Amino acid sequence: MEAIVTVEHTDAIAWVSMNQPERRNALTPEMRDALIDAFERLAENADCRAVILGGSDRSFCAGGDLSSLPSGDTLASRKRMAQAHRLLRLITELSKPVVAAVDGTAFGAGMSLALACDYVVCSERARFCTAFSNVGLMADMGLLWSLPQRVSAGQVRRLLFTSAVVDGDEALRLGLADQLVTSEELHQSALDIATQFTGAPPLSVALTKAALTRMPAPLQNVMGLELDGQSQLFSSADFTEGRYAFLEKRRPQFQGR
From what superkingdom does this record's organism come (predicted)? Predict the structure, then answer.
């Protein structure tokens, strides 16, 4: 039986694919747990410098699996949400950049997954929809945090209240996506931006991502994050390498130390 989540490695890049096309890669409990396992392994993989999250068969992720949702059991619902939050934290707190490669539907929890990533590349076939209000729910899996960072306050409310479907062109225009390409270009375009990320200093990326998950924040808090993070980086081997590379007019070779 084929795995519902596959991980392929290309140099320092890991491509994580949701692979349950008959369910349009819905976030079933099995899919969620397989993604958790994949990202936990990647978090410990020092050879991996960037991750791409995509779907199979013209679908990114159709959203949560409504058929398996507990009904009338608040405790069971909270336990399920806690597992979903575990996946969200693994993506947002991963010490390396995560690129979403969106082809087809990214609805509900699928949209939450895409926007939890650091960079979103979508094809002209992409369709984004918050979807939660269609079934009487509020947005979850961090969408109330990630969506306002990408679009205006009015658009946040429109997308959440009406569950409007947004195509690739509008996604780029609104800021939901960072890059729009054809379906044929999606794989290579995601690899290209991930390759750029692999050249970044790992320690700097990790501390920057950790700081960005706390935004927006008061200036005093931001300066505290800078004080803690930058003082560590000034003492790193990567900073020494970066400084000498700058003076010697060559590309730095960062090692994450």
Answer: Bacteria
52: its two tokens: 């791409």
CA dist., res. 74 & res. 108, Å (int): 20
Q: pLDDT tens for residues 5-44? A: 999 999 999 999 999 999 999 999 999 999 999 999 999 9
* Domain locations along the chain: 5-198, 202-247
**Same CATH fold, 202-247 and 5-198?**
no
Tokens, residue 168: 């690739």
Q: What is the largest CA-CA distance in the chain?
A: 66
Token couple for 37 = 């396992």
| Residue 203 φ/ψ, nearest 5 degrees | -65, -40
Question: Among 89, 101, 7, 85, which residue's Cα sits nearest to residue 53?
Answer: 101
Encoding tokens for residue 111? 């949209």
The C-alpha atoms of residue 101 and residue 92 are separated, in whole angstroms, by 16
Determine the Cα–Cα distance for residues 47 and 32; give it in Å rounded to an integer: 24
CATH class of 5-198: alpha beta
| CATH class of the 202-247 domain in this structure | mainly alpha
> CA-CA distances (angstroms) from residue 91 to 68, 163, 177, 242?
23, 24, 17, 27
Sheet of strand 105-107, all strands in order from the earlier edge strand to the far edge: 105-107, 127-129, 166-167
Nearest to 24, CA basis, from 105, 116, 102: 105
